[in-house]
Amino acid sequence: MTNKIVIGLDGTETGERALTFAKELAKGMGSCELLVAYVIEWSPYTFQTPEENAQRHKRREEELELATTRIVTPAVDGLKAAGFTAQGVVRHGDVAETLNAITVENNGSQIVVGRSSADGIKKRIFGSSTQNLVMHADVPVTVVN
Amino acid sequence: MKALKLLTLLVASLFTASAALAQEAPGLDDRINQAFAELTGPFVNTIFAPFPGTSFPWIVGWLVVAASVFSLYFAFVQFRFFGHAIRLVKGDYSDPNDAGEVSHFQALATALSGTVGLGNIAGVAVAIGIGGPGATFWMILAGLLGMASKFTECTLGVKYRNEYEDGTVSGGPMYYMSKGFDELGLPGGKILAILFSIFCILGALGGGNMFQANQAHQQIAGIVGDYPGWITGIVFAVVVFLVIVGGLKSIARVTEKVVPFMGVMYVAAALVIIIMNADMIGWAFGQIFTGAFTGLGVAGGMVGALIQGFKRAAFSNEAGVGSAAIAHSAVRTKEPITEGFVSLLEPFIDTVVICTMTALVIIITQQLLIDPETGNYLLNEAGSAIATVDGNTGVSLTSAAFGSAFSWFPFILAIAVVLFAFSTMISWSYYGLKAWTYLFGEGQTKELVFKIIFCIFVVIGAAANLGPVIDFSDAAIFAMAVVNVFALYFLMKVVRQELASYASRLQSGEIRKFEH
Q1: CA-CA distance, B263 to B38, in Å (whole number)?
Q2: pLDDT category, B394, cuts 50, 70, 90?
């Protein structure tokens, strides 16, 4: 059976470290696929103006495009160049929930993420996305510092 | 940078305009008001004309009859699909692959922030003050029926909206009038659409703008003391400008977050007051039911209570006016009817929940004076309304009712009124804009022209005491309903087909919940 590692990126350097770590991990495993995932933080329960609603579809496409070209595609290309089998995925949602959902859908065996970049009050109250992921994920999670 | 330059220009022109207003001789002001009243009087009188021999405005009857017809035609869809509507809002039926699009919840919240406002706070107090507690009963009934009107118009709004290549959408009554009538081979759709758009622009500048600015100013002046209205006007105009022209999302975002919070807090405070007076609940409902059918000695009796209740519900939830159809059409759903289901929650939340809370608090805190001997309500000296503690009416009656339980609440209420007014203005600026672009075409310059006109009207609304203008703008909003409901009667069979198809697929399990 092929192992599949899901790498959660957040566009910061901790994501880069997660990527490096996952590469090492994959090398050691032999047959292994890598899935690079980027989740755009989004909630269906926020409040918006009518104008924002009207433009939402357009914005969503732009956000997906930006995340794909700036973050996911370069990472996937880098992995492929290094000889790995890799794919990318970008999705909107709650970071922890969505990363887990992506992993489950793709039969991922584990998740590698960088330490959370959330800061300030929000982190104190709700915990970081990483903490939530570690607590609720259905597969083992490695957090790279 | 362009926005900044425009802003400077706007502020400069606003200052000049308001300075001119301030310096005007009072005589001139009066003359302008009078001329305007004479010009618009026939239109206002036609819209608000009573049925011959009664004091019941025909426009209220028009809306209530429409709501009843839609309720019957769709076999009380508002009750049959109420639970389904809530599940839709919770996202049970949302495809995870659509994450990032406008959710049902967001569309509902956006539409609600356009309707929840002064009507729920001040309007209810006026209705109870004149029609007595019994008005509450008729208000709730009208709210429940109005859910079917919203359902009809919002389903059509999504079904016939325009989707542009760049991914943005435009929808609303003008689109279902022109496209829907064409589809059914009916003539006159385009004419209705143009009429609707004209009334919508007038309604947006009036009821959706000047009236709001005016009331917000009065609230602020009530707390900090009297000062010229144009100051409030300019501050409001600048903030509105920053949001709708400058695209300053942060202000809109703050408001859109604070407004629902205020709404929840308002209902929570009302609930606390009601629970604190739990022993009075039975009595209050008794007053509402008895008053609904006898009037309890109120001027106008049962009919008076009925008129006030119906009127308030229609003014408050805008069911049948067509504005919500514009707000709801942004949702990207494969099933237009799901947005109809979601929208039927709107009159429920607005009228059945929030308006009723206001009414109960006023009744329970005994703001209305009762004759201890007869048990009937005492009338004020003029005999036109029920006598209240300290003679309060409108916002001040609601304020006093809440204040009798929490002395600090009137301040919160004033802030809430100002924020509600602001969010209503933002919503109506969009409705007006959509009507404007329908008439004149889409384009940055054309849109900017409307947005600047909108901001100028904010100042005018806050600065002047414009009784006739307010009458006119209310009339314009209801004129929208005349055109809209007329079109809905022709298009309702389209909605019925959608409903039948959806209901059968829901039953067969073709439409099912997604696992989240």
Answers
A1: 39
A2: confident
